[in-house]
Amino acid sequence: MIDIIPDWMATLEDEDLTFIKRFLLASGSLKEIANQYQVTYPTVRLRLDKLIQKIKITEQTEQDPYIAVIKRLAVNDRLDFETAKILIDEYKKQGGKV
Q1: Contact 51/20 with Cβ under 8 angstroms?
Q2: What would the pLDDT profile of 4-23 be if each residue is shown by its tens digit?
Q3: pTM of the entire structure?
Q4: Residue 93 is part of which domain span?
Q5: Is 77 a domain residue?
Q6: Distance (Å, whole) CA 81 – CA 74
Q7: 71 to each of 4, 57, 66, 86, how far by Cα in Å?
Q8: Residue 39 maps to which CATH number?
């Protein structure tokens, strides 16, 4: 049993954790997951890619929390990627000050 939940796992939504569980139980078969969710393979691939991005962003949080928040908003479709890029670029130009 895990005594400490990793940060990347603690920040995921229940829906993401359910997806990971199904993915593991399906032995990593995206085709099987597509059948379970009754969606196309590309839809499952896109969801997996977004989940991977969420995990990577969580790992980057320690480096710069502000940039991680902006990236998380973009990955969750709450902010478009072009706007996120502009915000991050401006933040870096100002020396990392909001």
Answers
A1: yes
A2: 777 778 778 899 999 999 99
A3: 0.64
A4: 61-98
A5: yes
A6: 6
A7: 25, 7, 9, 11
A8: 1.10.10
Is the same domain home to 40 and 66? no
Residue 6 in any domain: the answer is: no
| 69 and 95 belong to one structural domain | yes
Q: Look at phi and psi of residue 77 and say left if phi exceeds 0, alpha if psi is from -120 to 50, else beta.
A: left
Q: What is the pLDDT of residues 39-98, one digit of tens each?
A: 999 999 999 999 998 888 777 655 788 887 888 888 778 888 889 888 988 888 888 776
Could you tell me if 66 and 92 are in contact, meaning their C-beta atoms sit under 8 angstroms apart? no
Tokens found for residue 13:
């939504």
45 and 28 within one domain: yes
CA angle, 78 as apex, 73 and 79 as ends, to 5°?
75
Q: Which CA distances in Å does 8 have to 24, 39, 58?
A: 17, 26, 5
Indicate the helix (H) or strand (E) that contains 20.
helix 14-25
